[in-house]
Amino acid sequence: MKARLLLKRKLVLSESAFAEIVIWQLEALLEGSAHDYKYRLAYVVNGVCILRYDNEVGKGNHLHINEKEINYDFVSSEQLLKDFFAQIKRMENSP
Asked: What is the number of structural domains in the chain?
């Protein structure tokens, strides 16, 4: 399946944390998703990925918080980014 890279960024958030964002637009729907995006957004702290939003073939849209996997309702790529950074903020502010 052909894909067009829309966004690929690594953002340093602190000395111990960074976010990596990769979003592609596909020529067709990804199996398990009702949209034509393939994405991977990760939040890594001290070398460990503690948050990841992605959509795997057949699994659809979901996120991982530490070891827990949760379904994610994808609305748009813009909302995906907002949700990702809002979740990072919640995680940074929790004890």
From this structure: 1
